[in-house]
Amino acid sequence: MAWWDIRPLFQELSSRRLRNSAMTGAHFSSINFPLIDTNNEEEFRLREDQLGSHTMRSHGYAVAKTHMHDWIILLLLVLIDIILYIIHPFYRFVGKDMMADLKYPLKSNTVPVWAVPVFAILLPIVIFFVVYIRRRDIYDLHHALLGLLFSILVTAVITDAIKNAVGRPRPDFFWRCFPDGKDVYDKWGDVICHGDKNIIKEGHKSFPSGHTSCSFAGLGFLSLYLSGKLKAFDRKGHVAKLCIVFLPLLFASLVGISRVDDYWHHWQDVFAGGLIGLVVATFCYLQFFAPPHHPEGWGPYAYFKMLEELQGMVQAPNAQNGSEAQVENQEACMGLSLTENQNSTLEDELESGRR
């Protein structure tokens, strides 16, 4: 082949190299680095936002619908507690020799009945919403509300059921039964009350203390909630966190003490009520949240479960894209090797033409 005939071969070789370089750049820009692509970057940012923000508007209905049966159970507990409040308690035998411990003066409540739901339910709910405004996590808000209401209602049902079954007289029972101070007994020595029926009925509901049990159920739950949010048991020794955690328990204890001071309850009633409230609050809290000393104790179980599911959804497409990219890389490398072979053949032809 003459030297003036090799120009077409040079042109063909140059065009092939340009096509191969363009193909290689296109492949490696989208295969080896898929997250650099604008669409992939926006999709990743969207998923990242979904992992961090779950508001009442975006996920509230879905979360509540998932726990619809729990809310129905709460309504049943309300109905059961109303029935327990209406029915009469057990009227146990009260003899004349027992009146020595039941002649305390009839006083009004230092802590009214209406005040218990205010500080045992409304106060924790306000704190839950403050945390929600800061974190924007509907899972935390929903499960805190659900756990608190379960704690209060389960405690109320247990307390009223025991009250009706035991029928222990209050320390001021004498003045409830005999408002004029004239005691009357039947032939067996049992009291014959002539006071107001509702006041007498309430006088047989001393054990356990309902004020105390509900106070510890609500404020005890709040104490556990705060200890988890503040990470009180992070082993860093910040005593200020414990002071905040103990405040609700102190307030609940003062409510129990007021019941003894008002002669509405014996000390055993208050102790039993506080124990019932704390135990139920602990069980209800651990039903939705990890223990406060746990590394994930600052959030509900459902939140971390949701994060795992969303992270799995994010990782699955990336793994699929990675496998597809690997296959395309292999195909590109095979194409490059074939092109190099063709280029080497053309170079050999050129060399032979020069000769």
TrEMBL record:
Matching SUPFAM superfamilies: Acid phosphatase/Vanadium-dependent haloperoxidase
Pfam families listed in its UniProt record: PAP2 (PF01569)
Name of the molecule in the record: Lipid phosphate phosphatase 2 isoform X1
CDD domains the record matches: PAP2_containing_1_like
Compartment(s) where it occurs, according to its Swiss-Prot or TrEMBL record: Membrane
Taxonomic superkingdom: Eukaryota
The keyword Transmembrane belongs to this UniProt entry's keyword annotation: yes
Lineage: Eukaryota, Viridiplantae, Streptophyta, Embryophyta, Tracheophyta
SMART domains cross-referenced by the UniProt entry: acidPPc
Chain ranges of the Phosphatidic acid phosphatase type 2/haloperoxidase domain: 145-285
Keywords: Hydrolase, Membrane, Transmembrane, Transmembrane helix
InterPro entries: PAP-like, PAP2/HPO, PAP2/HPO_sf
